[in-house]
Amino acid sequence: MLRPDHLFPHDLTNSHHQDLAQNVEELMHHGPSRQFSDLVRTTSRLSTTSMLQGAKVEDMTQAQLCTALKTDADSGLSEEKAAARLLKDGPNQLTQEPRLGLFMLFLLQLTSFIIILLIIAAIASIVVNATNEGKRDEILSYTTGMAIFVLVILNAGIAAYTEHQAGNALDALAKLSQPEVSVLRSGERLSVPTVDVVRGDIVLLETGDVVPADLRLIEASDVKVDEKALTGEPDDVSKNTKIKEQTKLTPENMVFSGCPVASGKCKGVVVATGMDTRIGEIAKMMANEDTKTSGGLCDCLPASAENKTPLQENVESLGARIGILAIVICAVVFVIGLLIGTKDPEYPENPSWIYMILIAVTLAVAAIPEGIPLCVTISLAIGCQEMVKENVQVRKIAAVETLGSASVICSDKTGTLTEGKMTMTKMWSGNVEYYLTGQGFDPTKGQIMRANAVLPPGATSNGDLGVRTTLLAALLCSDTELFEAEDPTTGERAWQYRGNSSEAPIVVAARKAGLPKDASQAYRRLVNIPFSSARKMMLTVSDVRGRQVLCDGGMALPPNCQAFTVCKGAPNWIIQSCSSILREDGSVAPLSEGEKQQINNSVVDAYSDQALRVLAVAVGCIQQPPFELENEDIPVDQKFEALRSGLTLVGMVASLDPDREGVQESVIAARSAGIRVVMITGDYLKTAIAIARRVDILQPQDDVGESAVDCNSLRPNGDDYLPDERIDDMTARVRVFARAKPADKLEIVKSLQRQGLVCAMTGDGVNDAPALNEARIGVAMGLQGTEVAKGASEMILTDDNFTSIVRAVEKGRAIYAGIQKFVAFIMSVHIAEVIQIFWCVVTSMPLMRTPLQILFLILVTDLPPSIALGMEPGERNILEQPPRPKDEPIVLNWMWVSILLNGFVLSAVIIGVYIISLQHYVGVVFLKDILRLKEEAGDSQDEIDALLARARTVAFISLVFCENVRAYICRSFSEPVWVDLCTNPVMQKAVLMAQAAMLCAVLIPFFSDEILGLDGLHIGWWGWTFSLVGPVATTILCELCKLLTKCQMRRYQERLKRKEGYYLEGSEDEITSSDSTDSDLAQG
Question: Its Enzyme Commission number (predicted)?
């Protein structure tokens, strides 16, 4: 859910206006997620209270507004007044919700069931030794209890630190350097940081600036603002200073924070900043949703469940069940030990119940998988860091595991599947077609070439008359400029544009054709009539007095031509305004109705079918102006009607938003992974279909009528959506949704997830936040996305590239698979430990190892390989496997079979090694015989204990060898150990660390014998050699067990494919899913 500490301060907008109420009420009416319902209703109420002195700010005159805000439109605030308001109102940024401190996070870790059991075991160990007269005064007798406490502190500390560091990373986002803005202070124009803007400030904005706060305009010159982030509408919105009845989505005399100025200049007075803005109000209400959680343990600690991922909760639940089972086993073993009178071989005079309590502690330590939560936390944290290499920043750690179950990716088109950089690829002039090479905004790369013509090597068509005339004319009718600047995201210099996105390809193409950078500045503009939705074109008039030709290599101008008219806009509207056409040789010929129709059919429609955005360019020469061209008293519409008649069609330019590199391959890879890719775009259906075919979302054999729809089909009766059943039927088969509104996205996501699918949804605007929040995996755009979208998402694409999503899914699957592997590895270790201790008790053998030795094994020699398993690279066919069901447990039934088999194999091998070692060193095996030997030894009992320690040491060393071998075996549930044996360098390091730790444990004096009770210095060559029998036997037997596991795994995956309806071969890749997943399938 969106939280205020996830938002940048400069992305602020006002929530006090009626337009927001209309917008969010629409979302509520169309069924947004429940957590947004209160937001919508509350915002509706707030929208009617945006007033100053009893009047709405958009309805107040300039004088009333300035009086209410105690500012001056010409000089602004004084520095003193601005400082006072900043102190009173606070900075122009969203306030951050306090995060839990490191100490509180540490305390929360101590409340888990596993940790509580370990604490009880530690206390029991210390109390029993304190009441034992033989051990009470020996400080080393308390090492087990102290070691368990160290383990608890270490586990809780690492988990708390990892979670705290994740929060610090989010804080770092909010501390990025803020942009500056121009304001009037005491009559002087100053640049101040955005965070220092206050109510009443007079802000000056130009093309390319981002609105720093909510402004009421008091001056405006041809201003257009990109409000897509707020309204979802792709077209720039014209703004002015007029006060009139509210009819549009946003007031025409107001601009809102975070919206870029697409063109023009304006001056405005700040009416709202910080948390009083539109996004600020949204952030407050959504933050309130976050705080509506119950307290933690006895309401003394905050609730920690919201900080845990489903996987972590799954693992904790697994650990709790095992912990309960451990208690039962401890009780059973305690009773059995009492009944058979088991004695401590070191202190046989002590009561049996004291020794059995120590054995129960040993069993508890052996049974409780204390290393699993720690490994999961570390693996997920490392996974988040690894995602950064795939251009994915994970905001919520749960996304790492959820990615592995993604079954549908709903993607925007512009900037995600495509570059988001309109590039001119074709143009037409004088009945000649041209194509342009190069991509993006770099004018130094690419040429203009004639289509269907063979040119000499190195030759281009840059100098053709039609090319130069069309591009210069279009340039004269543009307000966009091209420049080279440092890219803030990469630090490299890159070509960028300032102005209108549809004009950027024209400027780039003109530079490719060799026109100078300042070509348009040589023609003084006399008239400028901007594009509007009613006129469908832009018109300019430039001074060309004294010129015989438009430019070098361009069309000739008639004698006494004083002004040059250019119209640029929608082809059908432009062509209808033309009476003549420019021919290839430079002559001008009449344009008949039949030729107009032919151009529309053969050029305009052909380009549109290829998803090209077409603009027509027409010109006119004015020898005797019908009025004074620069007279601003003449109405714009009157000028427009007089100047746009009798034009000459000179050409058309066609631009394309090119596919991102690798998108088609990623779509195909996603399909083979059982993931359906759905395009949801605001573009027209014909354009959406063309692009979907290019990137292979729509395949050649697909029926376009069934697979691509206009979103009006979801709401054929206006704003009322179809019943859920009909929408579900539609979303189950459709892969392209065109002309989509933000509310449509939300309905599509809800429908897909009603069908049991795990949906990843991309978005970049404020209005995308409900859909991002509703989706199991919200994916925000890092470059073009608003901070509201980022705050509502689970992950952010730092490069806005669709291919990064597919790579992240692959990485997420690999991370989850790695976690499954080390969980299986650790669980089999604990099962083996329990079996070994239980065997020793019920067969009256001396205990194989102490609690401290078990802790050392699990945390020092087993933990590094476990973490390495979590970092295991994904198997080669990981994207050929179907997505895992969202309710699939971490350990499947067939995994339990593997775990139990491995546990039994390990137990049998080590018990065999221990029995033979006892026979070799001590000469006897059973406890009663050892006690008899000690009685016979008299004062030499310590020698018997030393021999017993050597037998335990051989079993200990053999177990470490076995576990290190099993770490390699567990890298795959099905593939032999030698497949890709050394592809994980972390594993090699982990095994070396484990071996080094083992050597320290058995060879370092005092630490080895006095603390751990081991004696590696005296086991001789026989002990070291015989310990190698364990890993050899384990490798053979575990590899044989894999044959059964492989068969079970294959059957499970086949059932999963049949259940989910994935056909990884051929064209039948539609997803069909029942409302629920069968329990046997979920369990494997």
Answer: 7.2.2.3
* One-letter amino acid for residue 897 of the chain: V
Q: What are phi and psi of 695, to 5 degrees?
A: -95, 5
Cα 932 to Cα 982: distance, rounded to the nearest angstrom: 50
Q: Which residues contact 172 (CB under 8 A, 6 or more apart)?
A: none
- Only one residue has tokens 């000089």, namely 75
pLDDT of amino acid 1060: 56
pTM: 0.67
Burial of 1013 (0-12, 13-18, 19+ CB in 10 A): buried
707 neighbors 734 (Cβ within 8 angstroms)? yes
Per-residue confidence (pLDDT) for residue 765, from 0 to 100? 67
Phi and psi at 708, nearest 5°, equal -140, 130
Q: For residue 58, give the DSSP letter.
A: G
First to last CA, the chain: 32
Please list the active-site residues. 412
Q: How confident is the model at residue 1061 (pLDDT cuts 50, 70, 90)?
A: low
- Contact yes or no for 648/586 (Cβ under 8 A): no
How far apart are alpha carbons 860 and 854 in whole angstroms?
A: 10
What percent of the chain is predicted at pLDDT more than 90?
A: 21
Q: Can you give the three-state secondary structure of 832-872, one letter per residue?
A: HHHHHHHHHHHCCCCCCCCHHHHHHHHHHHCHHHHHHHHCC
* 672 Cα distance to chain centroid: 22
* One-letter amino acid for residue 900 of the chain: L
Q: How many CB atoms within 10 Å of residue 683?
A: 20
Beta-ladder partners of 541:
527, 565
DSSP E strand stretches across 957-1036: none
User: Pairing between strand 647-656 and 578-582?
Assistant: parallel
Alpha-carbon distance 576 to 573, whole Å? 5
> What would the pLDDT profile of 994-1031 be if each residue is shown by its tens digit?
899 999 999 999 888 888 889 989 999 999 999 999 99
What band does 567 get if pLDDT is binned at 50, 70 and 90?
A: very high
Q: Is the pLDDT of residue 720 over 80?
A: yes
Both tokens of residue 926?
Answer: 């059973």
How many angstroms separate the CA atoms of 923 and 951, rounded? 11
CB 567 within 8 A of CB 651: no
Q: Name residue, tokens 């730790």.
A: 997
Q: At what angle do helices 863-870 and 941-969 cross, to 10 degrees?
A: 10
The whole-angstrom separation of Cα 439 and Cα 422 is 9
Average pLDDT value for residue range 461-466: 90
Packed helices 278-291 and 34-46: angle between N→C axes, nearest 10 degrees:
140
For 501, phi then psi, to 5°, come to -65, -30
Residue 119: name the closest of 157, 83, 159, 147 by CA.
147
Q: Which residues pair with 679 in a beta bridge?
A: 411, 736
- What would the mean pLDDT of 968-973 be, rounded to a whole number? 86
